[in-house]
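Quick one from the shared queue. A colleague (R.T.) flagged Zn-dependent M16 (Insulinase) family peptidase as missing a structural entry in our internal table.

Convert sequence to structure tokens.
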Amino acid sequence: MEYKIGGLYHGFNLKHEEHIEEINSVARVFEHEKSGARLLHLENDDDNKVFSIGFRTPPQDSTGVAHIIEHSVLCGSRKFPTKEPFVELIKGSLNTFLNAMTFGDKTIYPLASKNEKDFFNLMDVYLDAVFYPNIYSQPEILMQEGWHYELENKEDDLKYKGVVYNEMKGAFSSPEGVLMRKIQETLFPDNTYGFESGGDPEFIPDLSQEEFIGFHTKYYHPSNSYILLYGDLDLNDALTFINDNYLRNFDAKTIDSEIKIQKPFHQMKEIVEEYSISKEDNDKEKTFLALNFVTGKSTDPEIHLALEIIEYLLLETQGAPLKKALLDAGIGKDVYGSFDNGILQPVFSVVVKNSEENKKEEFKNIVLNTLNDLVNKGIDKKLIEACINITEFKLREADLQGFPKGLFYYITAMDSWLYDECPLMHLKYEETIKKMKTALTSNYFEELIKKYILNNSHSSLLILKPKKGLAEEKEKALEEKLIKYKESLSEESLEEIVRRTKSLIERQTTPDSEEILETIPMLSLEDIDKKVENLDILEKEEEGVKILHHETFTSKIAYISFMFDTKGIKQEYIPYISLLSNLLGKVDTKAHNYIDLSNEILINTGGIYFKSEVYGDDKEVLKYHPFLEGHCKAVVDKVPRALELVGEIISSTVFEDKKRIKEIVQMLKSRIEGRLIDRGHQVAALRLASYFSPASLYLENTSGYEYYKFLNNIEENFDENIDKVISKLYEVMKIVFSKDNLIVTVTGEEEEYNALKNSVTTVLNSVSSNVVVKEDYNFTEEPKNEGLLTPSNVQYVAKGYNFKKLGYEYSGKLLVLKTIMSLDYLWNRVRVQGGAYGGFANLVRSGNLAFVSYRDPNLKETLNAYDKVVDYIKAFNTTDREMTKYIIGTVSELDSPLTPSMKGEKAVSMYIRGISKEDRLKEREEVLQTTAEDIKAFEPLLRDVVSKNYFAVLGNDAKIKENKDLFNNLENVFK
């Protein structure tokens, strides 16, 4: 169908249309005449269709009202009155993405699906949720998702509880999270960005039902909405559906959601703030220093992209000059930057971690003096070329690791659209990149640094320093506040809180009726493809080395890896494999210093990196396959140079620069510290699996908490032990880099394969031909049941075991069991009733099964909930319709969309683990044939797993100590 500018299509007026070459799409900008809604259509052949609706939602306080509404509108609506329609959709749709997100000034509701019928079903539920939510008639929704006073009996202690309340307690446990919040507060004292849109736990309980409802009434109107339709879909049908079912019911109105500009400061502000560490922690070198600048507006396409490149150039590359200057001066042990261009007034930050407050002046002077030097003497042109090249490569590749492209383009469009500018501004990057390239022959970047950083007084110097026991102080103050409040209440008021608590519990524990559940639209099993995705591997050989080729279209980019079996390394040297992978490409070689090497990599490739990896075995539970992998990607004509660089790194890396090694060790340790708090569920789950799984124990020693302790030991004893460390690194290199250990992989079509074939000798000549004797590792199973103590305000609780070791076999039906446990039992017990931000089951073919919670206020209660899953499954009873829903949700997870590089990696993983296409077809068939009786039959498996009583908890030190009798060992993580 042909669309004309000014034409009216199902209530939508077409305002603008053009082809955008950069994203290979026809873009159409519409406005809905009656309601005032804005709509962007991006037409292309991507079968992963995306819909999103967003609203400008500038908060006026830190109660988290925008965030709580984002959760709450998905708790039932006019047409879909189930308590958790969001969960019902995850269970029973073929969505490839389904979520909602709150930003500093907007809230968005994106979804994606490859199935058109499914896509329209999801769109219907989301539109009904945002425009007609049940929050107006059901105050329990705010209580559950936001906050409430919990008091089951009048004699109990009064507590705050709520999903967002506990989510944000977890977010505020991370010093990096506190730092980013305080940066915004210091720079934006007079506008919306000075508030915490997610909610500050201190202020969340100030939110009333009236304010909550008022926020939705004000901002959730089509006149304040921004809609996306993306991909290979029928636009005519979509516009008809949106108009007829929703937008025609609204009249356009003026909504004051304008984001006021923060007036610039006359001089830099200096602020000192505190974050909590445990009483036992050492507070030396735990301070963060941050220098921050407000840099124009995000509606300037140059600022949007150029300052992103400048941040990468100054602070992210291996030889980044500003990072190097700060590390050389010993200001801190880790340096990083950020450029937030997703708000109206973008913020550029330079952050030093593991420093001291008394270094603040030196920090500020080094930043400003280094930048002055760069402006006056000029930035290295090779470094500029390298940074522009890698930025352009990533933009053109658009490999978002499974994140739907349409959603990425929507968020990019909102960086201008939300502020009343053209939504296509930042999607058309070609002209901006051309302008950037003039920097190779001009002082383009130097002038931007001068204007937006050196001559910019709208800035702040933030000192975030540790305070022992601050979290405990705050908890004690909160307890006393609640005790006083409870004492001030009349008998009637206490009874009312008890009544409301019981009313909420009743709502949470009463299942939706079959009639209500049937309002949620769903597909049938006939809508599901019975075939599995092509993950075929072609086995080839060059010079006696096996090459695995996954043939797929990659837009003329070759994805290549060199996989070296590491079973020849002694058991006590295993952590050194990971350290080696972290150093390769980041230290000198015989031909290049690490700065020049980094430039060569960024100019000639899309990246070269090394990692330690472990693959389980599908047939033998105790068997696994460890590798040190070198990965590179490059356009076809740059493959020869890319492989020269890989060969150079493998054959001639030198470890003479001890100062550089120490910097990398300190940075690695710093990044893992952040993960220990931000992603504690992953840390706890891996720690748990390491008790009983040899593959997981190997991984724990190369990437988990055990690896963190290894790095900590190297740093603490650096001067006396570094020569031994270097000696071991050379020994590992000598054993690992042998043709005898090597498998080469390539993802791409014949042209990409030939590019590898014609140049692979470069790498093969750089490794030895030694025959490597494989080691026999002795990993002992041990139920350590540890409590890992951190200053976090929440817990991450993991419990499980390997069911294959108990004599059970893997079946695809177990994946349906996992869906049921995650989205029914654990969602309700751990999240809805327990108040944790998340609770889910992990289950893999190798036999590991674990229950894990995320940002959880509880500990013992969660472990008890895991044990009771046995009773839940024993009594499991459901309808055929519900069973179909669980199966569809399971298939949706099996069929997660993969980019070409991800497909290649998955194909190789299947090959190494010994999983054939027939195995995958059998698994899919078992999923599709699962019955309620099959699920009940897993009761003995679950009983045996939980009765092994293996668990690990990472979290609040006081909470863990309170439950110390549960544990075999308590360990302070940051001692």
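The chain is about 45% helix and 20% strand.
The chain has four domains: 8-146+195-258, 269-402+422-467, 538-764, 786-972.
Added to the table.
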